Amino acid sequence: MGKIIFVDVDGTLVDYEGNLPESAVRAVRAARAAGHRVYACTGRSRAEMYDNLWEMGLDGMIGGNGSYVEDHEHVVMHQLLSAEDSREIVDWLHERGLEFYLESNNGLFASEHFETAAVGAMQEYARRKGRGDADNMSIRDAFPTMIFDGELYRDDLNKVSYLLRSYQDYLDTKEHFPHLVNNTWGGAGETALFGDIGVAGITKSNAIEHLLDYLHADIKDTIAFGDAKIDIPMLEYCAYGVAMGSGGPEIKEAADYICGDVDKDGLADAFVHLGLIEKYE
Description:
alpha/beta; Rossmann fold; Hypothetical Protein, Haloacid Dehalogenase-like Hydrolase, Chain: A, domain 2; 2 domains; 5-stranded antiparallel sheet; 13 strands; globular
C-alpha cells in the first residue's frame, strides 16, 4: 500500500465557488494510479458529495467532520445524533426562533424560514471566502440539493447547523446541550455566522483512526491537506500535514508544508512536490 491521502473539500479540493480544478482531478487520478489511496475528509455529509467528486475516483470519504467513514461504498463507521437529541434540538431552535438545517447522508433539510432568513449570512460567508458573485447568491445556489419541505423530526442526523442572530445564541445552545459538541462557523467568536451541534467525540482525526484500523494501515503513511482551523487536528494526527495557501494563520502554523491556493493548482503542485506523482498533465 502506498500513501493514504486525506483531502478536505471546500477550500482544498474545490474553491469556495464550488469549482473543481481539472489539475486536482488529474492529480488525484495519477496518485491512485501510482498506488496511493485518496479520501475526501470534509464537513459535508454524503448527500453533499456531488457526482463530479466521486467521478475523480476517490477511494472513499470521511464526512460530517468525522461522524461518517466510508471505504469503497462500505460504511466503516457512522455516529448519529440520537432521535431524542435530534427532536430536542429541533424544538429548542424553534422555541428560540432560530432557523436551521439538518445534515444527513439522505439530504439537507431546511427549517421553515431558513431559505429567506439565512440569505444575508450566506452571502457574507461567501464574501469572506472570496466568492465573486456573493451579493447575488441565494440559498439554493449555496445548497443546490437542499430540501425545503422535508420532515424535521429525524433519526439520521450527523449534525445540525443554525443561523446565529448573536453570539449569545451559540453560548445558550452550548449550555443547553453540554453532552453534545457545539461549534461555530463562518467566523471566529463574535463574527461567527452559524452554530452547529453534533455528536460528542467527533473529529476528523478520530475518523481517520477508525479508517486506518479498518485498512490495517500505519499512521506513518498518512498525509493530510486542509485550509481551515477545523482541519488542524487532522494535520496534527497524520504523519505529514499540508495547508493550502488560502488557509488561515493557525493551520499554516500547524502544517509541515504550505502549498498554493486550490484555484492556482496548489493541490496538484503539492502532490508533485511530495513525490506522490511525477506530473498531472
